[in-house]
Task: inverse folding
């Protein structure tokens, strides 16, 4: 039977640690997967640090450029070191750099606002990280979205209605013109793809 959704290729099915190794080797597919998985989390941090939507998107690009130039030196040298913590530090640094540049601009283009945000840095950039649960939810949602975007429409609907909405498979099958077995298979295949996506997240 043809799979209901195909999103992870051979390179992207590597383990989480292998993803970092591939990134260090400048593997383009690994980099694409990294940006797809962690882009929303970087954006979330930027917004939490006080940036507007467009600013967060721009700083996010700077973050990934910095990661590209720094990934070769990433290591876990001490207990507690984590990839996510390393990425968050880069995001914080690039955000501060952005605000400092903006603070030098004329007030008409937002310089005064940036100056005020810089004065609030102790409050905005505390060492205490964002709630791990919030971060996990962002990553879980992103992995699920990437999988579902690449599934057949009927399989996606069946999965969402059975797993998320809690509807009975038989009623979902009748509504979508599927067999009950096809609904169960769609659910199983999509859950497997989501688990594969979770395996790509760097252990941190």
Result:
């Amino acid at each position: 039977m043809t799979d209901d959704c195909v999103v992870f290729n051979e390179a992207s099915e590597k383990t989480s640690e292998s993803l970092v190794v591939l990134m260090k080797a400048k593997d383009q597919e690994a980099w694409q997967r990294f940006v797809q998985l962690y882009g929303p989390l970087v954006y979330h941090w930027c917004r939490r640090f006080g940036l507007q939507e467009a600013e967060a998107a721009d700083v996010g690009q700077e973050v990934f450029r910095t990661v590209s130039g720094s990934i070769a030196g990433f290591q876990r040298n001490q207990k507690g070191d984590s990839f996510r913590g390393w990425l968050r530090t880069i995001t914080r640094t690039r955000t501060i750099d952005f605000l400092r540049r903006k603070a030098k601009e004329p007030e008409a283009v937002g310089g005064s606002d940036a100056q005020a945000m810089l004065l609030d840095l102790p409050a905005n950039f505390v060492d205490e990280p964002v709630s791990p649960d919030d971060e996990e939810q962002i990553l879980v949602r992103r992995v699920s979205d990437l999988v579902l975007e690449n599934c057949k429409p009927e399989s996606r609907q069946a999965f969402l209605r059975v797993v998320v909405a809690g509807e009975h498979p038989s009623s979902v099958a009748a509504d979508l013109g599927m067999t009950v077995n096809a609904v169960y298979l769609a659910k199983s295949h999509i859950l497997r793809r989501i688990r594969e996506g979770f395996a790509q997240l760097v252990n941190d």
User: Anything to note?
Assistant: The CA atoms of residues 143 and 195 lie 9 Å apart. DSSP finds ten helices and no strands in the chain. The chain has one domain: 11-200.
